[in-house]
User: Which sequence fits this backbone?
């Protein structure tokens, strides 16, 4: 279950993706499959090759991309890997 983001934050994430940027969206999220994880960061781009290249920097596998027909394909970052990447990307405002 996702919560803790505004429509404006979601709209901005989609606009960045549509413009070919690597876009980050962090929100609260609860899923019994991932105990201890309370947030997820979605890292998306409409240019899949660019997203794959970005993911290689962090040892993210292309098969981990959630390919979406609506163009908002993304990696889901959780746990320690999420924190590591957000810190390296300088996105401290995404760390809660």
Assistant:
């Amino acid at each position: 279950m996702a919560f803790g983001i505004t429509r404006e934050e979601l709209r901005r994430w989609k606009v960045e993706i549509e413009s070919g940027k690597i876009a980050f969206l962090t929100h609260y999220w609860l899923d019994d499959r991932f105990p201890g994880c309370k947030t997820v960061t979605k890292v998306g781009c409409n240019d899949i090759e660019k997203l794959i290249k970005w993911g290689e920097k962090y040892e993210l596998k292309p098969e981990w991309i959630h390919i979406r027909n609506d163009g908002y394909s993304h990696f889901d970052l959780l746990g320690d890997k999420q924190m590591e990447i957000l810190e390296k990307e300088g996105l401290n405002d995404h760390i809660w």
The chain has one domain: 2-94.
